[in-house]
Amino acid sequence: MQCSMQCVLPKKESTEFPSFISKTDEARIQNIPNILGDKDTRWVYTEKLDGQSGTYAMVKHKRLFRTTYEFIVCSRNLRLFKPDNSNYWQIAKEYNIEKKLRDILNDTGAEWVAIQGEIVGPGIQKNKYRLEEKKFYVFNFILPHSGRWDSLAALEFCASYDLHFVPILSSGNMLPDTVDEMLKIATGKSILADTLREGLVCRSEDGAFSFKAVSPDFLLKWDE
């Protein structure tokens, strides 16, 4: 995750996704079945939310006589350089994300910070959770010196800055032996509403590796 400041940002007003942050795209368990049956690693299960994934970052630029801050807002694949009426910028404003990320930089002394999360609510993916307003749930918290934090540490840290983390269902889990068993575990009720959850994101307790398991029942219900 470390990067020199010369390579951190794309050219001014470019829509290129920042090179120092990975895009949000978890591998499906069907594509990595060999990971199953591992009894040495423990895993944290979080609910996979069905919405729009967004990325927010703040970069500190140390100049000769002053320090400036650059706020970055991205959809799943593109940087949204100028404020607009998109869900991404609406969430940035409603959650005061720019100030919170600047506070994190000042508190930690890091050169940059990034959070990635899911936007859910009215007008997004049929609003399966029947929410009355849009909400943002962080699933990745990233600093340059430590990389992506594990879910339990990220939950606690985000809470201290009044940022919601995706629902954590359980920790200390050992993975089952088969894909079918994993998909059964992924199927269940959402924490957000009385409806089926989309599935799980499973992350090792050290935060180093993760994958998704999408519920077959969810896919059938919503014809996806």
Verbal overview:
The chain has a 5-stranded antiparallel beta sheet. A 4-stranded antiparallel beta sheet has the order 7-1-8-9. The protein contains 5 helices and 9 strands, in the order E-E-E-H-H-E-E-E-H-E-H-E-E-H. Mean pLDDT is 92; it is low at 1-10. The protein is 19% helix and 28% strand. With 224 residues, the chain is an alpha+beta fold. It has helices spanning 87-94, 97-108, 151-159, 179-186, 216-221, and strands at 43-48, 52-62, 67-74, 112-120, 135-143, 147-148, 168-173, 199-204, 210-214.
Topology, pairings included?
Layout: E1 43-48, E2 52-62, E3 67-74, H1 87-94, H2 97-108, E4 112-120, E5 135-143, E6 147-148, H3 151-159, E7 168-173, H4 179-186, E8 199-204, E9 210-214, H5 216-221
Antiparallel strand pairs: 1-7, 1-8, 2-3, 2-4, 4-5, 5-6, 8-9
